[in-house]
Every structure is written in C-alpha cells, then in structure tokens.
Write a structure and sequence with these properties.
Number of helices: 8
Order of helices and strands: EEHHEHEHEHEHEHEHE
Structural class: alpha/beta
Number of strands: 9
Radius of gyration: 17 Å
Catalytic activity: guanosine(46) in tRNA + S-adenosyl-L-methionine = N(7)-methylguanosine(46) in tRNA + S-adenosyl-L-homocysteine
Oligomer: single chain
Distance between the termini: 26 Å
CATH class: Alpha Beta
Strand order of the largest sheet: 5-4-3-6-7-9-8
Keywords: Methyltransferase, S-adenosyl-L-methionine, Transferase, tRNA processing
Strand content: 15-25%
Binding site for S-adenosyl-L-methionine: 59, 84, 111, 134
Helix content: 25-40%
Protein name: tRNA (guanine-N(7)-)-methyltransferase
EC number: 2.1.1.33
CATH topology: Rossmann fold
Length: 226
C-alpha cells in the first residue's frame, strides 16, 4: 500500500483504464441495482443486503470474477461480498452471477480498505479471500503490495473468532512477505506449519494451471482468528 496525497489515505491499487465490453456495460446497468451495494460511510446491514442471515465471506480484488462465481456456486449457504475497483471486472462478475443463477453474491466497487473501515462491523466476517493480488514485483514497488500490517490488522478486527483469512499468490517473494506479515499479527494463527495446501473450495484457474505445468509455484496461506 502507498500514500496518495490527493486522497490523504493509504491506497493499495492503481486504477487502470480497462475496456468495458458492451455486455459488461449492459450487466452493470441491468444487474447492478440488484447485486451491487453502493459504498457508504455507514455500517452495512448484511442481512438486509442479502435478504437473509448467513456466514459472510469478504473477497478483495476478484478480477474478472470467475473464481468468485465458482466459489459462490459451491457454497450457496454462505454470503459473498466481492470488492473490486475495476469496472470491467464488476461487469464480468455480474454477468456470471446472472448466468449461474447466484443469489449469494454481492459486489461493492470501491477501495477495500475504506469498505472494511466504514461498512463492515467488527467480528462479523466468517472469512476473507485475497487471491493473487498484484505482486508489484519490482523491488521499488513492493511498498504498494496489499498484504501489509495495517490491512491485516484491520482484517483481523473484522473477522469473527474462528473465522479465517485465505491468501494466495504465485510470486514466491510475495508469499514469503505474506507469511511474515500474517505471522506477526497477534490475532491470527496459522493453520499450517508454513504454507497451506490449497483448500478444495479454491479452484485452479486456467492461468494458474498453465503456470503449474511450467513448474511455477503457487502458495496458499490460511490463518484463523483466535
């Protein structure tokens, strides 16, 4: 994460101008009112947003949403809130949500740090997913990485006791940093001796599968709230 003097806050992303397809734009227009939750500086009534009370999982940066949709379909008994800043990704997940008939997926298009700070109640989340965040692989850009102590402390405060934080990356040096930062958070406990086996609920993406065939590594970290 890095300081943005124009916003007077820590930012963990750079907004990129992605091409919004006609189908994505149509999904945002027609499905957005149903599945998107506007950002507000007020605590979210999760039960009202989903029309039910259920364990809620929060995902930061869902990209184009393929993994999010698959996990939501796999666990219909849970609520899923996905946060993404890039509009094409929002449109893509909305399309998938509609095509797959998902009733348990909601989207907030905003900075995750602010959403967590203002909209998510302490000790309320059953889990948090952070899959393949931008590695900012150049050393001078490492400070922009998402998984750093301030965010991890905030996440830990929002996860209910017994809930979990699941991170995954395909950059080894980022995995090392994640393990160090998560291990230093006193409210969290590692479920493994180091890196965890990939949980069954996290599907292997096409990109990840290609990398694995080429011998590239993927590291999962699963910590629980004490």
């Amino acid at each position: 994460m890095f300081y943005d003097p124009t916003e007077h806050r820590i930012r963990s992303f750079v907004t990129r101008a992605g091409r919004l397809s006609e189908a994505q734009g149509r999904a945002i227009e027609t499905l957005g009112p149903r599945f998107c939750i506007p950002y507000q500086k007020a605590e979210l009534d999760v039960a009202a947003a989903f029309g039910r009370t259920a364990p809620t999982v929060f995902e930061i940066g869902f990209g184009m949403g393929e993994t999010s949709a698959k996990i939501s379909a796999l666990m219909p008994e849970k609520n899923f809130i996905g946060v993404e800043v890039h509009t094409p990704g929002v449109g893509s997940l909305l399309k998938l949500t509609d095509a797959m008939g998902l009733q348990n997926q909601r989207i907030i298009q905003h900075d995750a740090f602010e959403v967590l700070t203002h909209m998510i109640a302490p000790n309320s989340l059953a889990g948090v997913h952070v899959f393949f965040p931008d590695p900012w692989h150049k050393a001078r850009h490492n400070k922009r990485r998402l998984i750093q102590s301030p965010l991890v402390a905030l996440l830990a405060s929002r996860i209910a006791p017994g809930g979990y934080l699941h991170c995954a990356t395909d950059w080894e040096d980022y995995a090392v940093q994640m393990l160090e930062v998560l291990g230093a958070e006193p409210a969290l406990e590692n479920t493994a001796a180091g890196y965890a086996p990939r949980p069954d609920y996290r599907p292997v993406t096409k990109f990840e599968n290609r990398g694995l065939k080429l011998g590239h590594g993927v590291w999962d970290l699963v910590f629980t709230k004490k």
